[in-house]
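Page 37, continued from 36.
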């Protein structure tokens, strides 16, 4: 946070967002996104600057230092504009709308996002990062145009706003009449394969984002189709990411993306949403392949999150900054001299294990720790067995972690986002099913309980953020979608049907609050959110699965659990709406693809009832059965899939497909023979 000494704060000083507080001592008269700001713009007849970013954003910090902390720039902004600062993570609805506007104007987007709008919120100009000289030119030119050619500005803003609304209608069109089938998935995979990097994994371009939902889908498809080439690509990607600089080899956790094709140089910020999904991905990959590396990586992520971000009350912090002490990546990189001084006689082995050579060299005499793929050669060169090498590396890491304590840590974003909390809850639940660690189970349960206790408003409505004992902002579709997913996973690990009921209640509420009468897809904002110029719809899967794809999956699962055919049919109609996009651009619709697998390949409902339900579930889960749901109860129950199936002193497994069940069996081996 900027030095506040001898400075007067602006209106952001009353906010809780770390990003907004970073700007609280700027000489710019920043206001939070609010009716008050828009009313002031109307009163003074001034255009509005909506500047959007987040606390871990490197280029947001750069623009703040160059422009927003500068007195000359601030004077011009304060004189001619009403200036609004937005934390994109708190107000993802505002970001989604104005990102769409800037992309329509410029063809690209990113953060910081700077969008100039009329007092009624309609956009007329925008961009991302501007250098100080560029920014001054923009401020002067737009002010002149607004004052002298206002009619032209009003006309353009109206046209752009209409364009946004029309694009929404096109994107959310009703589904075509044709059926969704495996051919759609095959076509998608065929096109996708031509864009894969089969040397370093991931896409054949830079920068490289991990995009975990891509590899969940590809992994499941490869297993179902026995596509060995595709499975090889997924394994290559997961291995290269795990060995690369994007994975923090010392502290655990992943950075947001790699700036190169090698997964080497990360953009050093760490986000909860990335690490939750990556933990889930590596857990699933371990279950399906039994590759010990994937277990190691998953546990490293979970240990990092628990140590750095998890609070005993049951919530998680959001992110670590890319910068520390004013420099990007300073906390994470090492000079050769430093490593020799700290590790001494162990340096030789360590330097080969973590590529302290031209491979790991970054800039300014700094090295990024990257794990060598030549472990066998190191064992041979130093006459070591694997246990001895692991012991040496572990001892080196202890020394470096101790040294790290003297370094300035990256800035912490200590707010809690409901959707991200829920995704992390799901990751810990999956880890419990994969590895059987009771601590993982307890963290999952405590985090979902936190959501239910502190992030639910009257009438069962979710809230978006939590900090310092206060929850605020109406939840968006993503908050409901990922909370429902977390509840379903907590039902699995606890067999507590209350979680299943909670999930169903949230789902029912979603269909009312976010309904779009012109589309099968759901709005991102609820029906009470009237302050924006348009209600947007989140469709494509990006660094996070889209809220609509996750809701479609939720509807499919709950339709099976609760025998609600209308929900299952709704999920299918939602998928059909994006079928063409999925066929042509698989990597942008991979979570939709997971639903496509459920609908086009045999799908089982597996009910386990009786005293030993937990043990049977773990056995079945370890088999990597991805195209199925599990319904569980240790006792009698009225939920459809387990109703009238309890037999005292027995634990029975019922394998069903589309509601038609085989005779119950008592062993996993027998159940496996019945699976479709």
């Amino acid at each position: 946070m900027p030095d506040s000494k001898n400075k007067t704060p602006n209106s952001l000083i009353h906010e809780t967002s770390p990003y907004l507080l970073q700007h609280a001592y700027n000489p710019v008269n920043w206001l939070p996104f609010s009716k008050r700001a828009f009313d002031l713009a109307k009163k003074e007849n001034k255009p509005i600057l909506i500047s959007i970013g987040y606390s871990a954003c490197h280029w947001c910090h750069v623009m703040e230092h160059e422009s927003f902390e500068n007195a000359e720039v601030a004077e011009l902004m304060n004189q001619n504009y009403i200036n609004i600062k937005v934390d994109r993570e708190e107000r993802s609805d505002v970001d989604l709308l104005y990102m769409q506007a800037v992309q329509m104007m410029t063809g690209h987007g990113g953060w910081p996002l700077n969008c100039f709008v009329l007092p009624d919120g309609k956009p007329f100009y925008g961009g991302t990062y501007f250098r100080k000289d560029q920014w001054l030119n923009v401020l002067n030119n737009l002010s002149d145009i607004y004052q002298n050619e206002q009619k032209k500005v009003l006309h353009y803003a109206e046209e752009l706003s209409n364009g946004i609304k029309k694009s929404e209608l096109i994107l959310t069109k009703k589904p075509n009449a044709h059926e969704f089938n495996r051919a759609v998935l095959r076509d998608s995979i065929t096109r996708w394969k031509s864009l894969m990097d089969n040397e370093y994994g991931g896409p054949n371009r830079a920068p490289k984002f991990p995009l975990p939902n891509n590899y969940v889908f590809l992994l499941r498809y490869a297993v179902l189709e026995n596509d060995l080439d595709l499975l090889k690509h997924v394994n290559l990607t997961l291995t290269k990411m795990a060995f690369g600089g994007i994975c923090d080899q010392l502290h655990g956790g992943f950075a947001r993306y790699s700036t190169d094709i090698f997964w080497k140089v990360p953009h050093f910020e760490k986000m909860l949403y990335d690490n939750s999904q990556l933990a889930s991905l590596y857990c699933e990959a371990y279950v399906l392949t039994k590759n010990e590396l994937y277990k190691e990586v998953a546990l490293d992520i979970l240990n990092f999150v628990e140590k750095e971000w998890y609070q005993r009350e049951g919530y998680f912090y959001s992110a670590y900054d890319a910068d520390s002490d004013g420099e990007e990546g300073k906390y994470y990189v090492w000079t050769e001299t430093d490593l020799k001084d700290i590790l001494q006689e162990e340096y030789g082995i360590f330097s080969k294990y973590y590529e302290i050579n031209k491979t790991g060299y970054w800039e300014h005499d700094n090295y990024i720790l990257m794990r060598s793929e030549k472990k066998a050669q190191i064992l041979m060169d130093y006459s070591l067995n694997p246990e001895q090498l692991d012991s040496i590396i572990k001892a080196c890491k202890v020394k470096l972690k101790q040294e790290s304590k003297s370094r300035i840590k990256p800035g912490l974003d200590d707010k809690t986002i409901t959707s991200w909390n829920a995704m992390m809850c799901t990751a810990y639940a999956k880890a419990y099913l994969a590895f059987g660690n009771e601590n993982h189970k307890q963290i999952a349960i405590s985090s979902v309980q936190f959501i239910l206790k502190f992030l639910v408003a009257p009438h069962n409505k979710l809230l978006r953020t939590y900090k310092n004992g206060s929850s605020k902002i109406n939840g968006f579709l993503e908050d409901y979608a990922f909370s429902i997913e977390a509840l379903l996973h907590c039902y699995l690990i606890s067999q507590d049907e209350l979680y299943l009921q909670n999930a169903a209640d949230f789902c029912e509420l979603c269909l009312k609050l976010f309904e779009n009468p012109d589309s099968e897809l759901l709005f991102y904002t609820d029906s009470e959110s009237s302050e924006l110029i348009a209600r947007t719809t989140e469709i494509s899967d990006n660094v996070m699965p889209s809220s609509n794809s996750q809701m479609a999956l939720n509807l499919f699962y709950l339709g099976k659990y609760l025998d609600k055919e209308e929900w299952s049919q709704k999920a299918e109609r939602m998928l059909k709406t994006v079928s063409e996009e999925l066929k042509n651009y698989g990597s942008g619709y991979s979570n939709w693809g997971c639903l496509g697998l459920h609908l086009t390949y045999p799908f089982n409902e597996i009910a386990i009832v009786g005293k030993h339900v937990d043990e049977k579930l773990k056995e079945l889960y370890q088999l990597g059965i991805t195209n199925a749901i599990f319904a569980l109860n240790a006792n009698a129950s009225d939920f459809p899939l387990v109703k009238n199936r309890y037999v005292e002193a027995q634990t029975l497994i019922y394998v069903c497909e589309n509601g038609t069940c085989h005779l119950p069996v008592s062993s996993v081996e027998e159940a496996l023979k019945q699976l479709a």
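The first helix runs from residue 18 to 22. Flag for discussion at group meeting. The two ends are 57 Å apart (CA to CA).
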